Amino acid sequence: MFAHVIETATPSLIALLTGSLVIAGLIKGVIGVGMPIVAFPMLSMLVDIQTAVMLLSMPLVLSNIPQALEGGLVAQTLLSLAPVLVGMIPGVWIGVALLLNVDPAVAKMAAGASVILVAALTLLAPKLQIKRQMIGPVGLGAGFCGGLLGGIAALAGPPVLIFLLAKGLSGRAFTKEASMFLVASSALLASALTSSRQFDWRDVLISTLATVPVVAGMLVGQKVRDAVPADAFKTLVVLVVLLSGAQLVWKGMFA
């Protein structure tokens, strides 16, 4: 499906898609997170929702692998994430089923609503704390919600990131678990999409190549990170994403 889009795309469309990925990578380089929350609404203005999700699947996997593997302790990290991963699996499959089978206008409205929800959570999320005995059940729910949003709009991260913060993680421990979850959820997302009739191995290859502009943007973002007030930049980005989500809902309603 995406391979056909690329084969018939004009040079200007390819340039816009590449630029969107570079910008998303730049933001990830500056603030450490946020690549899909910026890339998805931008890409969705250029191609259909399903194609945008497929295009983002492999960059999400590959851009998070180094942080997921940093410092070793992979098995311990996966064990800590077990409730989240168990919840994530059915969430991704249900989300992908909704993405691929609903009316395109409805899919656009659902994706726009997901973007708005995720951006609002990122902007307004309270400082929650979870009691130790509730980590399992809450992790299961966070994983399911993350998987569902991941399947619908490649936005698996925010519900789980909020859960990890509420669990008391910070610094490298937080980054490692967050990255490991994003690698696992995005790999499952790519598998679920390619198992459908709409996508095949060529789409996975194109999605893999899309990692290049993302990484290029990340490298630039890391160089300018110290010159940019991170909190103000993050707030501005989230506000832009909120407007983009509203635009998606509007286009779905009045397409």
Can you put this structure into words, describing what you see?
Helix 2 runs antiparallel to helix 3 and helix 4 packs across helix 8. The model has no long low-confidence stretch (mean pLDDT 81). The radius of gyration is 17 Å and the shape is globular. The chain has helices at residues 2-8, 11-31, 35-44, 49-69, 74-80, 82-101, 104-124, 135-153, 157-166, 171-194, 201-209, 211-224, 230-254. By secondary structure, the protein is mainly alpha-helical. It has one domain (2-254).
Secondary structure blueprint with pairings:
Elements: H1 2-8, H2 11-31, H3 35-44, H4 49-69, H5 74-80, H6 82-101, H7 104-124, H8 135-153, H9 157-166, H10 171-194, H11 201-209, H12 211-224, H13 230-254
Helix pairs in contact: 2-3, 2-12, 3-4, 3-7, 3-13, 4-8, 4-10, 4-11, 4-12, 5-10, 6-8, 6-10, 7-13, 8-9, 9-10
